[in-house]
């Protein structure tokens, strides 16, 4: 295994999507309600430099797009958190499994309301992505190919916290990724692992327990509100933006939330 030389971070926040009844307002109000904190990653960039550069560029929004304000669209309890669908960024799968509804999330939020299903096609959820190598602004573009290829399979999926590329088969990497919550070594020859959680694994396990379901439909929205790159010049994440300020910014930036969510609370 290589020695990591760069890192990255996410700040994760729980968000509610509330229906509005007035015709002169946007149909849904998105409101941040609970800060879960920062998660830090180390990159195995000596082993998989291309895959790591893709992830770092998307964390940093180097080309004007990336992971900020996208949600974990699938959370398979006991397996992992799927993120990085930056095309359908504000939507998540409809939560048919509501066995966790009403549980307290470690005191951060007193209770959770049962989500109300909304009839929207789910075919594209988790299947959309955009690599940092996109040259034309279209989705999935890597040097005139639909995706960028599997770099290698040197890093094993042998422990929780490994971050690996989600794909639709061989050589179909874009922006989508999975953070494992348990070992999954059967992925070693199928998915390109490229990073590992170094801080915030307790947050990942919280999301797995209180947001995940066996079928993968998340019970609640968890959004990446801040992301970036860590290196010698910036070894730590910046200060967290207060939730009140995030909500003000989101209220002003309604263009990012034009698509209806697949469920509301």
Account of the protein in words:
The chain is built from three helices and eleven strands. The protein is an alpha+beta fold and 265 residues long. The strands form two sheets. It has a nine-stranded antiparallel β-sheet with strand order 3-10-1-2-9-7-8-5-4. It is globular. It starts with 6 loop residues before the first strand and ends with a strand.
The percent range for helix content is 10-25%
Tell me the number of strands. Answer: 11
The coarse silhouette is globular
List SSEs in N-to-C order: EEHEEEEEEEHEHE
Strands in their spatial order, largest beta sheet: 3-10-1-2-9-7-8-5-4
Rg, Å, rounded? 18 Å
Distance between the termini: 43 Å
Helical stretch count? 3
Note the beta-strand portion: 25-35%
Largest sheet: 9 strands, antiparallel
Unreliable spans are 93-125, 136-145, 255-265
How confident is the prediction overall: mean pLDDT? Answer: 77
Structural category is: alpha+beta
Quick summary:
The protein has three helices and eleven strands; from the N terminus they run ββαβββββββαβαβ. It has helices spanning 49-60, 201-211, 243-252; strands at 7-19, 28-43, 70-71, 74-76, 80-83, 116-117, 162-165, 177-180, 193-199, 221-230, 263-264.
Overview features:
265 residues; alpha+beta; 9-stranded antiparallel sheet; two-stranded antiparallel sheet; 3 helices; 11 strands
What topology does this entry show?
Blueprint lengths: L6 E13 L8 E16 L5 H12 L9 E2 L2 E3 L3 E4 L32 E2 L44 E4 L11 E4 L12 E7 L1 H11 L9 E10 L12 H10 L10 E2 L1
Antiparallel strand pairs: 1-2, 1-10, 2-9, 3-10, 4-5, 5-8, 6-11, 7-8, 7-9
């Amino acid at each position: 295994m290589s020695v990591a030389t760069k890192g990255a971070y996410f700040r994760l926040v729980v968000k509610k999507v509330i229906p509005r009844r007035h015709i002169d307002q946007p149909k849904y109000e998105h409101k941040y309600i609970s800060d879960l904190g920062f998660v830090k990653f180390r990159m195995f960039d000596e082993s998989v430099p291309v895959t790591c550069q893709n992830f770092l560029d998307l964390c940093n929004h180097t080309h004007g797009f990336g992971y900020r304000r996208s949600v974990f669209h699938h959370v398979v309890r006991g397996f992992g958190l799927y993120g990085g669908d930056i095309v359908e960024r504000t939507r998540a799968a409809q939560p048919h499994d509501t066995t966790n509804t009403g549980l307290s999330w470690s005191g951060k939020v007193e209770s959770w309301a049962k989500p109300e299903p909304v009839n929207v096609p789910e075919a594209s959820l988790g299947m959309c992505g955009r690599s940092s190598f996109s040259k034309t602004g279209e989705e999935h573009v890597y040097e005139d190919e639909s995706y960028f290829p599997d770099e290698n399979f040197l890093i094993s999926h042998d422990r929780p916290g490994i971050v690996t590329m989600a794909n639709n088969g061989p050589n179909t990497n874009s922006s989508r990724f999975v953070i494992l919550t348990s070992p999954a070594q059967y992925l070693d020859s199928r998915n390109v692992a490229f990073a590992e959680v170094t801080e915030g694994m307790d947050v990942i396990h919280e999301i797995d327990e209180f947001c995940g379901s066996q079928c993968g439909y998340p019970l609640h929205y968890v959004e990446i509100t801040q992301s970036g790159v860590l290196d010698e010049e910036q070894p730590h994440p910046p200060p967290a933006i207060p939730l009140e300020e995030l909500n003000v910014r989101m209220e002003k930036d309604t263009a990012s939330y034009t698509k209806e969510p697949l469920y509301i609370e």
